[in-house]
Specification:
Length: about 160
């Protein structure tokens, strides 16, 4: 049995690490804006670029104001924070922590810059995945942990089967 609050503390530590990695890498990307503005090939299939996304995933909802997007993100972040505080599973705490750190990282960009700094560009041939950042990767990893961690009943399976 875990000590009360230990999973919430773990979630906070994961969130702070994800936030720090995200903000640090975005700062490096912005500091090298001249180099990245035209794209910098790292290896075949991966470039570093500099892009400001004023929407959400894949540029969706780009017509909403930054204030509206921040408010929406803060409501979702508060809900995830409550789930992180209530969980008793370390794996769930890690998943919630990744999501929280990534969400707060992107909210910080929206508040400071009016959009999110994206700089990771993966591609195959001429087909490019939309540019993203470590906050987006943390959110994705958190969702994967919450949905697929061993011992967890997937949400698409009924517990009454």
């Amino acid at each position: 049995m875990q000590r009360p609050g230990s999973t919430a503390t773990f979630a906070c530590c994961v969130a702070m690490a994800a936030f720090a990695l995200d903000q640090g890498t975005k700062a490096m990307a912005v500091a090298n804006a001249d180099t990245l503005s035209g794209g910098l090939s790292v290896f075949p299939g991966f470039n570093l670029v500099l892009h400001r996304n004023t929407g959400v995933s894949f540029g969706m909802l780009g017509d909403l104001t930054p204030t509206t997007l921040v408010a929406l993100a803060l409501v979702i972040t508060a809900w995830i924070g409550v789930l992180a505080f209530r969980t008793e599973r370390s794996s769930d705490a890690a998943g919630y922590g990744f999501i929280l750190g990534g969400a707060v990282g992107n909210v910080a960009d929206r508040l400071r810059l009016g959009g999110v700094t994206d700089f990771l560009d993966f591609y195959i041939g001429e087909a490019h995945w939309p540019a993203f950042n470590f906050a987006d990767a943390a959110i994705f990893c958190g969702l994967v942990v919450l949905l697929f961690w061993p011992g967890r009943t997937p949400i698409w399976k009924s517990t009454t089967d």
